[in-house]
DNA sequence: TCGCGGAGTTCCATATTATGGAACCTTGGT
DNA sequence: ACCAAGGTTCCATAATATGGAACTCCGCGA
């Protein structure tokens, strides 16, 4: 690739990015280092910059893979599919739980619902499709946060109800818990009386591209039912992820 | 986004890239210029660098869209989906025409069928999935050629039947015609008695990534029926392309 | 428990590289 | 033919990226 004048840094960064994106598999730091022939410090700095912007991400081994921005782009190119593919899952979950079921993706720093199956009860059947909710006080949002698919905006966290978690440290603790058990819960944090449970859906590159949720009134979603639904959601989301091509 | 030390150029470039990728629509230079607040010259230089590396591309108006590297990544993440997404279209076409319908992609310089709906007649119901046919004597192949998605191999064009077009100039003339009317036809050029009609399917970056075809025996696919099917295919392929995220 | 080695990050003086204002093209409109 | 808007190229300047070395972190073996 010819290097024109005044773009060395960008050229180098772009080269690294392209290499990671084109390689089918995660690229360890060392591989990128030797193959690019750049000095360690430079490589480290450039990769970190790309990571900051969501163009790259590190998997648990520290190897680099395409980041959330690219995953979102990829899933949007087929996001009509996502709805079609997920529909049977939504319906099955709806049948088993009787509650409102949603599929959501990230869009512009908030959670956007893109498909829904209505509750079979009268209470809780409103249409959420197209609705956008904040990250920190919804089960869906917390799931995206927990998996590093989204980042909290700067500034204070909006208090929607008396139970909204507005302390970042408390929230962090909860995100760790979500990663551990596989599903997220929001209990009257977005709206009084509303409880939701959510689990992550992964796309072809293993990145979290969407999330499934079940929501209903606190009178029906008692703790043991939440646990049961959490398990169901986790399982369904895992199967859907596999159908979408997510690696094991 | 916080700017750490020693990455100004990369940060700015990454910001531009993210903006273009996240925006659903092509971003004109001026928009990027004003929204990023960077000087004209800098913006121009950074965008050109990204373009050089295939991360961005300019459409015919000079507006920026995600480039070939990203498009390739997206289609790789979702090519399993292509079949799933296209299935309903294949079925609808099958119902309306009663003939064999195929979805094909390019693979190693030939056309490969990846999905099929069988004819409702007895004649013409064999399974083509996995079958590879040459570019110059199939309706599918000619469609790929016409849109510049494939190139003819060097050397003489194989004569499969007495009607196979083996002269490159004749073929070129036909490709022009295909671009004009939107669909391609092969009349007993691959196999005696077999006629096929095909139209192009475009993916997220506007490139031709697949094609739809209808094929059947010459006794049923008389000229006026070919015209009718051509129109149908063109319409269905256009809709499918939009679902796959192709620009208008 | 300690120390070793590899992997990655941070530091900081240096000069290479990006910067941006202005001039300069190019294209489409009237 | 002329003008305006939209982009690109130029070039002196200094701000920025650079990369060698020091440093931190972690896992492993003794």
Layout of SSEs?
The structure is a homodimer of 248-residue chains.
Chain A: H1 8-22, H2 29-36, H3 40-52, E1 56-58, E2 64-66, H4 68-77, H5 79-97, E3 100-107, E4 110-117, E5 132-133, H6 139-146, H7 168-181, E6 183-187, E7 194-202, E8 208-217, H8 223-243
Antiparallel strand pairs in A: 1-2, 3-4, 3-8, 4-5, 6-7, 7-8
Helix pairs in contact in A: 1-3, 5-8, 6-7
Chain B binds a DNA duplex (30 and 30 nucleotides) through helix 1, helix 2 and helix 3.
Shape of chain A: elongated
Biggest sheet record of chain A: 6 strands, antiparallel
Based on the structure, what is the oligomeric state of the protein chains?
homodimer
Helical proportion of chain A?
Answer: 40-55%
Indicate the mean pLDDT of chain A. 82
Q: Which chains share the greatest interface?
A: A-B, 47 and 44 residues
Q: Order of strands in the sheet with the most strands of chain A?
A: 5-4-3-8-7-6
Structural class of chain A: alpha+beta
- The total strand number of chain A stands at 8
